[in-house]
Design brief:
It is a single chain. The chain is an alpha+beta fold. The chain has 2 domains: 120 residues, no CATH class; 90 residues, no CATH class. The protein is 42% helix and 17% strand. The strands form 2 sheets. Strands 1-4-5-6 form a 4-stranded antiparallel sheet. Helix 1 crosses helix 3 and helix 2 packs across helix 3.
Length: 235
């Protein structure tokens, strides 16, 4: 109940990088393989090879989900959607064409699309200049494929079911009364990343640290104090 998003981010990052974390697991390094082995301790299908394949498949799946979660652009996108009004919905495309004259765009009929998607989002990313108070913004766009998300949600549902199954057994429910879930076809583990979403785009600001005089905290507060003083004198 006390953790924050940055705590979760750090735990996932440490597991993915095989860095030490505080844990009650009897393992020198907590990895996705270790976690999968624990979750599926009581999975017994009668086929040891199948049991091992399920454990390994979920470990690789969770590692890929973790990479997506740790993607900094996904974090910016999530925050823009969560706070509203900072994200524009819709996919992006990129087209290239040879120019007859340098600096003059090629005619439309000569342009060739090299990446596109109907679905996606675009949003702004802050780029720090000197410190957190001084920054420029760049425009970033991510393309989506809804079908990838559908498969991803199914696999997340399987994962939640299996974690709950482990917890039920841990707290006393007989193992033969707990059901675990996994895809009927091993290829399904790859489905959330199977369809190409085109490309991601980033339009950086031309402003650099050398282009600005950084403002201190006192500089910024002085603007408000001046406005307050002016309002006071005019009232």
């Amino acid at each position: 109940m006390k953790y924050q998003n940055n705590d979760l981010y750090e735990v996932i990052k440490k597991i993915s990088e095989r860095r030490p974390i505080y844990s009650r697991l009897y393992a020198k390094s907590v990895t996705w393989d270790v976690i999968a082995a624990l979750i599926f301790t009581h999975l017994k299908t009668g086929d040891d090879k199948k049991d091992s394949r399920i454990r390994n498949s979920f470990a690789r799946l969770w590692a890929r989900f973790a990479r997506d979660y740790l993607n900094v652009n996904h974090g910016f996108e999530y925050n823009s959607i969560k706070h509203g009004l900072r994200v524009k919905m819709g996919g992006s495309y990129l087209a290239l064409g040879v120019q007859d004259t340098p600096g003059v765009p090629a005619p439309p009929e000569r342009m060739r699309i090299v990446g596109q998607s109907e679905f996606g989002s675009s949003f702004f990313i802050p780029n720090k200049l000197h410190d957190s108070r001084n920054f420029s913004i760049s425009h970033h766009a991510l393309n989506w494929n809804p079908q990838n998300f559908i498969y991803g949600l199914h696999l997340i549902s399987f994962s939640i079911t299996n974690v709950l199954g482990f917890l039920k057994i841990f707290y006393g429910v007989p193992a033969n009364e707990v059901q675990f879930s996994w895809p009927s076809d091993d290829s399904i583990y790859q489905e959330p990343w199977k369809r190409n979403t085109g490309m991601t785009f980033n339009w950086n600001s031309p402003i650099t640290e050398e282009d600005i005089t950084p403002l201190s905290k006192e500089d910024i507060l002085s603007v408000y104090k001046e406005d307050a003083e002016e309002d006071k004198n005019n009232s």
